[in-house]
Amino acid sequence: MGIEIENVSDDNPAETTSTYVFDIESEMANGHTCAGIVRILAKIMDENPNEMRPLHAVVNCDAIDALFRTRRYGEARDNVSITFHYDVYEVTVDASGKVAVTE
Fold first, then answer.
1. Would you tell me which of 3, 18, 21, 36 could form a disulfide with 27, CB atoms 3.0–4.6 Å apart?
2. CA distances from 92 to 73, 96, 97 (A)
3. R_g of the chain computed on alpha carbons
């Protein structure tokens, strides 16, 4: 389950953005970072993952999975993060397993 954080613009209180924060550490540890991202996006968008635009149409999933794959002795990568856009969402993934999705 994720946590929703609502941000209200100082310039225009009617403009609010929501940021959802999820933990996909277990997917990362198994080399399935993109599968975790798809699960999160499907949950936020309330859609079936099979009916969504494929994530690989937006980013190189093999590269993302390799980037966040644990090191040889099971250690997580240090100081690695990526940000990309999917539909109306900005997705940020970091090596700790945290994924922030802002709409």
1. 36
2. 26, 12, 10
3. 14
**Are residues 54 and 87 in contact, defined by beta-carbon separation less than 8 angstroms?**
no
Distance CA 24, CA 35 (A): 9
Q: How far apart are CA 13 and CA 96, in angstroms?
A: 33
**pTM value?**
0.83
The secondary element (H helix, E strand) that includes residue 35 is helix 33-45
pLDDT tens sequence for the chain (103 residues):
456 565 655 566 667 778 899 999 888 888 899 999 999 999 999 999 999 999 999 999 999 998 888 766 666 667 889 999 999 999 999 988 999 999 8
